[in-house]
């Protein structure tokens, strides 16, 4: 009897230990693994939705580029006595300078994570998954467009980097970045529809529109003497201007875009959802009054609570006088 008990106990221990080892070796079933997270369409979409959040300022939920209107003769800030626009800013502790630089590269990092993480699986994934990856390339190009417009030569990353690599990174000439972005946006546009079916997502119209704008700016910089080594470069300027013109012509002739016949529709919720308004609006950053239902866009309630419903930015008389209506 004792022999039987010992045998049963021994077999139980062997089975139990084997089961424990098998259980311990299993990958977590309730969590995603960073090494293979972007191996399906749903995960890529989720990561892409996160990339869109970088187009809003984390502190106020506003689109970051709304600030730059104030740094021209066309706008007035309520706190204009301490802004960049009047050349009166302390670069050692100014929120805008430091936060915006960080915001751009955080947005670049988010997009790079999705692009790089999905690369090994992309050939076997759906066209929709490839569209989401293309959207990340457009978002990344948006961040770099503002970086080179504001700072010129900047560090340039097209894949994930470690903190050590960030610290040791050097600035890449802006013209090399522009040439990369123009090619990248052209490639991304082949995976995108001319008009997004989901409000607030980047489409082919925006990708090529951004390409045209980047080329237009680059041509202007070369023409005005900001080319390689700070010199005028008429040949490169002409090349960029031609890219801008040809790309813009493609949008006009092929995208199906056009002006909405009812101008008021562009400024109401119901109007913005009409077909003609959607045809005119190219890449609208979206807000929802239902915070629980937001995906790739922001909650208007969050923005209203943070900003406090105040008016802090106003047009100058110069802007008013520039237009007849």
Query: Uncertain regions: pLDDT < 50 for 5+ in a row?
Result: none
Relative strand content: under 5%
| SSE string | HHEHHHHHHHHEEHEH
**What summary fits the major beta sheet?**
2 strands, antiparallel
Specify Rg, calculated over alpha carbons.
25 Å
Instruction: Count helical runs.
Output: 12
Helix content: 40-55%
Number of strands: 4
- Give, in spatial order, the strands making up the sheet with the most strands: 1-4
- The termini sit apart by 103 Å
- The coarse silhouette is globular
Structural class: mainly alpha
Compute the average pLDDT: 81
Describe the secondary structure blueprint for this structure:
Layout: H1 2-25, H2 41-52, E1 75-77, H3 95-118, H4 127-151, H5 163-168, H6 174-189, H7 204-224, H8 234-254, H9 269-272, H10 275-280, E2 287-288, E3 298-299, H11 300-307, E4 313-315, H12 317-322
Parallel strand pairs: 2-3
Antiparallel strand pairs: 1-4
Report on the structure:
The chain is mainly alpha-helical and 325 residues long. It has twelve helices and four strands, in the order ααβααααααααββαβα. It has a two-stranded antiparallel ribbon. The N and C termini lie far apart (103 Å).
List keywords for this structure.
325 residues; 12 helices; two-stranded antiparallel sheet; mainly alpha; two-stranded parallel sheet; 53% helix; single chain
């Amino acid at each position: 009897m004792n022999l039987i008990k010992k045998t049963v106990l021994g077999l139980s221990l062997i089975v139990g230990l084997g089961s424990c080892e098998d259980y311990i070796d299993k990958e977590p079933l309730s969590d995603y693994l960073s090494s293979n997270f972007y191996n399906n369409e749903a995960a890529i979409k989720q990561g892409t939705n996160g990339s869109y959040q970088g187009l809003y300022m984390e502190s106020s939920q506003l689109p970051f580029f709304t600030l730059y209107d104030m740094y021209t003769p066309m706008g007035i800030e309520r706190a204009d006595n301490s802004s960049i626009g009047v050349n009166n800013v302390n670069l050692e502790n100014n929120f805008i300078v430091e936060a915006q630089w960080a915001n751009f590269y955080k947005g670049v990092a988010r997009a790079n994570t999705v692009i790089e993480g999905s690369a090994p699986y992309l050939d076997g994934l759906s066209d929709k998954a490839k569209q989401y990856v293309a959207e990340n390339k457009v978002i990344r190009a948006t961040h770099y467009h503002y970086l080179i417009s504001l700072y010129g030569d900047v560090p340039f990353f097209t894949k994930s980097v470690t903190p050590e690599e960030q610290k040791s990174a050097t600035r890449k000439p802006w013209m090399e970045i522009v040439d990369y972005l123009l090619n990248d946006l052209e490639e991304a546009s082949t995976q995108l529809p001319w008009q997004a079916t989901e409000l607030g997502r980047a489409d082919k119209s925006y990708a090529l529109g951004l390409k045209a704008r980047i080329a237009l700016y680059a041509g202007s910089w070369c023409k005005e003497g900001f080319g390689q080594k700070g010199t005028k470069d008429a040949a490169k300027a002409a090349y960029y201007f031609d890219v801008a013109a040809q790309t813009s012509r493609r949008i006009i002739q092929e995208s199906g875009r056009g002006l909405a016949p009812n101008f008021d529709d562009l400024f109401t919720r119901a109007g913005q959802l009409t077909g003609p308004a959607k045809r005119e609006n190219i890449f609208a950053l979206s807000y929802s009054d239902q915070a629980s239902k937001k995906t790739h866009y922001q909650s208007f309630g969050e923005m209203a609570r943070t900003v406090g419903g105040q008016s802090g930015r106003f047009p100058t008389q110069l802007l008013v006088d520039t237009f007849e209506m």
